[in-house]
Amino acid sequence: MKKAGSGKSGRKRSAPRERPVLPRAPAQARGQRRVEAILDSAAAMIRESGLEGLTVHGLAQRAGTSIGSMYHFFPDLDAVIVGLADRHLKAFKPLVSALAERPARAWSRMSAAAAADAIVTPFFSYLRLHPDILPLYASPERTSRFGKWMEEMKRAGLDIIERILAARGPSVPRDVRRARAAVVVGLLEGTTTLLIRSKASEVLVVEELTRAMTAYLEAVGRA
């Protein structure tokens, strides 16, 4: 791990690596519990103080482990963030799969409001349960692995939204559906950025997003 640097955070962050150091997978259940405790503590510290609040000593203390034990599983703080990104990816995939596996007939019969809610609710419910994602998403220092996680989610979102639009309007040309899917994903991304930059109520912002997406789905209809 990097040595602690100057400043209130207790260390200076290096520039993001092209290939961040990966966490070491635990071989035993006890090691897995320790890894989870470290990741849980890191998520809480990022939520409370942002990436700059994440320090080696503070993380070890909060996780109730030694710095040597952290070295064993996480070579540096960027590896901790890689671990968080991978854990989010594993947890979020079932939510994405649930949307993808819903039958086309179900999507075609839904009202615009119901379809908008089905798209918006899983995404922002997950963000609400895991608020460490927003500081990671907002930071220009986030590792390339976290950036890859975001891009993977975006690609999956585009494919699923296009599938939903195809179910609701099968005669719409594919290039038009793809453009409309990009608009829907853009609404999700824009709202995420708004939550990062604004002090507005998350509940109200998500309600307005659902209203806007409902209006859009109604406007494009099946044409």
Please tell me the overall pLDDT. 83
The portion of residues forming beta strands comes to under 5%
Helix-strand pattern, N to C? HHHHHHHHHH
Report how far the terminal alpha carbons are from each other.
56 Å
Task: Tell me about the largest β-sheet.
Answer: none
Q: How many beta-strand runs?
A: 0
From the spread of the alpha carbons, the general shape counts as elongated
Low-confidence stretches: 1-20
Our Rg estimate from Cα atoms comes to 20 Å
* CATH class division of the domain at 82-220: Mainly Alpha
Helicity range: over 70%
Structural class, by secondary structure, is: mainly alpha
* Number of DSSP helical runs: 10
CATH architectural category of the domain at 82-220: Orthogonal Bundle
CATH fold-type name of the domain at 82-220: Tetracycline Repressor, domain 2
Q: What do these coordinates show?
A:
The chain is mostly helical and 223 residues long. The protein has a domain at 82-220: Tetracycline Repressor, domain 2 (Orthogonal Bundle). The chain has 10 helices and no strands. Helix 4 (77-101) runs parallel beside helix 8 and helix 6 (112-129) runs antiparallel to helix 10 (202-220). The termini are far apart.
